[in-house]
C-alpha cells in the first residue's frame, strides 16, 4: 500500500475485502512514524451558542430546543488549570461560533491558559486573519477547523450562507501564521460520494495538515437531517486509516463520534492509525448541553472519571500515555 493513487484510494474505500490488511498496515505506519505514545488532549466545550446553520449540527442557531450556555473566561481558565493538574499537556478550547468571545476576550483566556504548563488548541470556527493573528500572538499553538467535505456543492448544501472559499482561506491563514493546523471531514453525509472522500484525503495531504479528525455523521433529531441514515463506522475508520497511510507522521485522534457508533470505537481507532484521544474535561453540568449529535459518550461523567477510564483502556492495549506536548513529529 505504498504510493496510493486516487484510484487506489477509491478502490480500497469501495471494497471491504482488504479491510483487515488496511487497518493493520495503518497501525504499522502509526507505530513507525509516531510510536506507541498516545497524546491526551483535555477538551473544554465552553459555549454551545452558535450563529451558524450547519444542517447536521445540533448546535445550529435554528435549534430552539437546546439550553444554551457560555462559560466565563475565569471559569474556562480554572477548568484548564484543573486539567493540567490532572496531567493534560494540551488544552483544547471548543465552542460554537459565538461572537461574545471577541478577539479581546479570547486573548485574555489564551494568556491565562498559557501561564500554565500546556500547549493550547483552539476550535472556535471561522475568524478573520487579524483574529487568528491575535490568538497566535497571545500564545495559541494549534487550531482545528474541519473542512467537513471538499465536495463544494455538498459543502454549500450542508452550510447555508457559508462560503467554501472562506473555509479554505481560514486553513491557509492558520498555516501562514505558524499554527499546527487540524482539519478533517465527516463521513456519511447525505449524498456524499466515495470519490469525494478520496478527494478529502488528498486535500489533507495537499494542504499539509498537521492533525486530521475524522468522524461518522450522526443524525441529530433537532436538525433538518433528522431522518437521514447514520454514517458507517467502518467506512469512517477506513478514511482515517488511509489518512494515516498517506500523511504518515501527523496526529490523528480517535474521535468521540466513532465511540458513539461503536462501544469500543476509540480503541479500535487507536489500533487502526490513531494516536490521540481528546477526553472531555468540561464539568458534568454542561456536557449534555453540548449536543452536536445525539448519544454522545461521557455526558454523565466527570473529568477525573474520563481521565482514569481512557488511561486504563490505552494501557490495556499496551500503549503508553505521552507526557510531552504532542506536537507533530518531524
Ligand atoms: N455528527 C457527527 N459529527 C458532527 N459534527 C457536527 N455535527 C455532527 C453530527 N451530527 C462534527 C463536525 C465539527 C465537529 C466539531 O463536530 O465535523 O467540525
Ligand atoms: Fe469518559 Fe471513558 S472517557 S468515561
Which structural class do the helices and strands define? alpha/beta
General shape: globular
The CATH class designation is Alpha Beta
- Give Rg in angstroms: 18 Å
Portion in strands: 5-15%
Please estimate the helix content: 40-55%
How many extended strands?
A: 8
Q: Can you list the ligands bound to this structure?
A: 5'-deoxyadenosine, FE2/S2 (inorganic) cluster
Low-pLDDT residue intervals, each spanning 5 or more residues: none
| The CATH topology | TIM Barrel
3D structure, described in words:
With 330 residues, this protein is an alpha/beta fold. The protein has one domain: Aldolase class I (TIM Barrel), CATH 3.20.20. The chain contains 13 helices and eight strands. The protein has helices at 6-14, 19-34, 73-85, 103-114, 129-138, 152-158, 164-176, 194-206, 233-247, 256-261, 265-270, 284-287, 303-316; strands at 37-47, 90-95, 119-123, 142-144, 180-187, 211-216, 276-277, 320-321. Strands 1, 2, 3, 4, 5, 6, 7 and 8 form an eight-stranded parallel sheet that branches. The structure holds 5'-deoxyadenosine and FE2/S2 (inorganic) cluster. Residues 56-57, 146, 148, 186, 215, 217-218, 220, 257, 292-293 line the site of 5'-deoxyadenosine.
Write out key terms for the chains shown:
single chain, 330 residues, alpha/beta, TIM Barrel, eight-stranded parallel β-sheet, 13 helices, globular, binds 5'-deoxyadenosine, binds FE2/S2 (inorganic) cluster
Amino acid at each position: 500500500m505504498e504510493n496510493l493513487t486516487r484510484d487506489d484510494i477509491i478502490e480500497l474505500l469501495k471494497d471491504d475485502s482488504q479491510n483487515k490488511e488496511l487497518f493493520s498496515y495503518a497501525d504499522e505506519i502509526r507505530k513507525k512514524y509516531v510510536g506507541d505514545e498516545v497524546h491526551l488532549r483535555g477538551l473544554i466545550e465552553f459555549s454551545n451558542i452558535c450563529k451558524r446553520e450547519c444542517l447536521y449540527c445540533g448546535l445550529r442557531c435554528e435549534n430552539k430546543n437546546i439550553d444554551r450556555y457560555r462559560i466565563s473566561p475565569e471559569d474556562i481558565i480554572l477548568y484548564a488549570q484543573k486539567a493540567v493538574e490532572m496531567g493534560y499537556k494540551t488544552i483544547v478550547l471548543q465552542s460554537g461560533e459565538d461572537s461574545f468571545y471577541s478577539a479581546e476576550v479570547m486573548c485574555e483566556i489564551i494568556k491565562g491558559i498559557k501561564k500554565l504548563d500546556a500547549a493550547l488548541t483552539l476550535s472556535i470556527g471561522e475568524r478573520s486573519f487579524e483574529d487568528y493573528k491575535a490568538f497566535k500572538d497571545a500564545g495559541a499553538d494549534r487550531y482545528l477547523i474541519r473542512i467537513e467535505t471538499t465536495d463544494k456543492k455538498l459543502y454549500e448544501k450542508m452550510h447555508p450562507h457559508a462560503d467554501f472559499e472562506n473555509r479554505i482561506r481560514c486553513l491557509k491563514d492558520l498555516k501562514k501564521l505558524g499554527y499546527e493546523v487540524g482539519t478533517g471531514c465527516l463521513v456519511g453525509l447525505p449524498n456524499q460520494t466515495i470519490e469525494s472522500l478520496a478527494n478529502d484525503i488528498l486535500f489533507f495531504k495537499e494542504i499539509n495538515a498537521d492533525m486530521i479528525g475524522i468522524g461518522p455523521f450522526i443524525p441529530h433529531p433537532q436538525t433538518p437531517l433528522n431522518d437521514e441514515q447514520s454514517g458507517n463506522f467502518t467506512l469512517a475508520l477506513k478514511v482515517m486509516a488511509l489518512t494515516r497511510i498517506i500523511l504518515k507522521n501527523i496526529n490523528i485522534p480517535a474521535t468521540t463520534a466513532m465511540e458513539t457508533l461503536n462501544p469500543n470505537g476509540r480503541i479500535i481507532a487507536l489500533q487502526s492509525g490513531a494516536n490521540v484521544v481528546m477526553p472531555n474535561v468540561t464539568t458534568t453540568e454542561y456536557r449534555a448541553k453540548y449536543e452536536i449529535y445525539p448519544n454522545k459518550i461521557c455526558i454523565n461523567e466527570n473529568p477525573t472519571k474520563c481521565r482514569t477510564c481512557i488511561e486504563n483502556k490505552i494501557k490495556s492495549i499496551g500503549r503508553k500515555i505521552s507526557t510531552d506536548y504532542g506536537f507533530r513529529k518531524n
